[in-house]
Amino acid sequence: MKFFARIRSRKKSGSRxxxxxxKLTLLGLIAxxxxxxxxxxxxxxxxxxxxxxxxxxxRNTVFDVDGKIYSRLAGANRLKVSLSEVSPLFIDxxxxxxxxxxxQHGGIDWRGxxxxxxxxxxxxxxxxGASSLTQQLARNSLPLGGRTLSRKFLEAxxxxxxxxxxxxxxxxxLYINRIxxxxxxxGVETASQAYFGKNASKLNLSEAALLAGLIRSPNRFSPLxxxxxxxxQRDAVLKRMVDLKxxxxxxxxPAKLAKINTHxxxxxxxxxxxxxxxxxxxxxxxxxxxxxxxxGLFIYTTLDPEVQNAAQSxxxxxxxxxxxxxxxxxxxxxxxxxxxxxEPDSAMPYLEGALVAIDNGSGGIRALVGGRDYSQSKFxxxxxxxxxxxxxxxxPFVYTVAFSHGLLPGAAISDSPIQPGEIDGAGNWSPAxxxxxYGGIEPCSYGLIQSRNTMSVRVGQFxxxxxxxxxxxxLNLSQNIPRGPAIYIGSFETNLRDLSAxxxxxxxxxxxxxxxxxxxxxxxxxxxxxRAAHISAPALDPSAAWMTSQLMEEVLTRGTAASARxxxxxxxxxxxxxxxxxxxxxWFVGYTSTVTCxxxxxxxxxxxxxxxxxxxxxALPVWMQVMNKAAQRYPxxxxxxxxxxxxxxxxxxxxxxxxTGCQGAGTAYEIDLPAxxxxxxxCEIHGGDQxxxxxxxxxxxxxxxxxxxxxxxxxxxxxxx
Length: 721
Hints:
Layout: H1 2-46, H2 51-54, E1 60-63, E2 69-73, H3 88-98, H4 110-123, H5 133-141, H6 149-165, H7 168-178, H8 188-196, H9 205-214, H10 227-243, H11 249-257, H12 274-286, H13 289-294, E3 298-301, H14 305-323, E4 352-359, E5 365-369, E6 388-389, H15 395-404, E7 412-414, E8 441-443, H16 444-449, H17 453-463, H18 465-474, E9 493-494, H19 496-503, E10 511-513, E11 518-522, E12 528-531, E13 536-538, H20 542-558, H21 563-566, E14 574-579, E15 585-591, E16 595-602, H22 615-618, H23 620-633, E17 645-651, H24 660-665, E18 668-674, H25 689-698, H26 707-720
Parallel strand pairs: 1-3
Antiparallel strand pairs: 1-2, 3-11, 4-5, 4-16, 6-9, 7-8, 10-13, 11-12, 14-15, 15-16, 17-18
């Protein structure tokens, strides 16, 4: 019996050993598996660049010419602050709400995470819960994946790395600047300003608790949309603060009773307009894409909001007025509908326009409008590369070149039709005057003041094709100026910004100043990383530029833009109208001593705007409104010569000093000229009939038709001057 008892005892003992061994093996496997999981996720966590934790895209802040915030570009709507710039009440509320053991754990609140894991296993789900601030920072900073159990393991391992790399204060500061608070606001400073109109340093207890209560569900409990829900979350935070003895009940009760009364301060969003498009374009040229995308830049521009707003308003008002004229036979903007597919038309069917205003002193762009509605068309007509014919607006440069070569404003020029073979390289080309009429001999100045095509072509012939082509290139009007006499009347394409910048040469004594819109860029630490170069270079003969400028003043008093004075425009200014073939483009570009402004009106697909739609009728009214507004900010002075001026009597035919023979022939006239433009020799034409005939031929007019017409024309013209 004892024998069998011993056998039974041994069997029981072996069974127990087997059971113990199995359990030990299972525990070993579990431990090994757990260690393997830790190693796997630990290695995975090491692959993330923790520099990304501190990289928080902010919107690049754009300032106007006065240093005031104008707009923002790119990045998240975030205003970063240091921990010392945040109310301690918010810090306490945040920790009570999200991580009460923040200063005790090393990145993971193990008790909390175990509770969350148990709950997830039991419910077969992956609900959020028990994540420390460090873990939340990890998942909001790095691409850790979706809301899965695997993500939680990875998040925990990354959190441990963050705790090794950063101090608790650094982690807390990164968190409060990164976290989302709803309504498009990232970071506590942005949220504080958006919801309460104050800096985060000035948050009271009720406001601090409310913001802390938003973090778990910012959109659902936004005080702007759900004040009662926001109040409930605030009260829950306040109760927790009392429970953990962060505040007393006496402090909590008034905070709970405080009415949810938001006083949102408008956080400047991205302005969707053509001026900001121009800023973005230049930014893309000046900085790398990484610099732009990282955000936090301070971009100081030359834009003046008052002039900019006036420009946008004036353009829309004038174009709407044109659309309601009885002779306007095109679609109007008010009837336009965006296509059903949501894709805007590549070219707008309605009348468009553009405007650029430039500060003469610096070249800084004060206003830029590239169309009527940026939301409907992103095509920036002020900057579009060389896409519209400049027309008569180019003529002042042709006259300036001619004046620099010795032609004088009173020189006799024929307004008759161009004859075959008369103009070098023109063949049978014979451009008409815009009004279809022709005259006889007129002073050269008349050709510019009244924008006569035939006279301007003859002036271009005097200036020389090579010289005119070169000046157009020098002024950056186009990189591909066609070679041919048609350029004398602007038969080539440019854009409004370049044309306006070219006109600024006249009030700047022939000096071309590069136009620009970004004055300075500072990095996140307010260190300058770019400053405008303020490039300038001589472009036109200053004396010749002054002579042309004088004539463009007369354009506004008795020339093609004389309607400006009739409409009450009284500023000392000069400018030139421009109209292309078949009235497809209408221009006016002009300047005061302080500001140059260009206006274009037309269709994206060129068609006749209205019959006889001259620049004076369509573009000039916009220019006048904007220049009047600009004058309030940049008061103009009378346009003054920058070179010594002397009075001389010259012969209209020879462009030399007049003699008694010139006076007898009626070709002598007195004029104030730059000292270096006064002829050095006396007229020789009136020394004989052959010389007279040669002189007449040089100006494209037969000698026989000259004397009577010339005398009468000059007496009439200079008498009224």
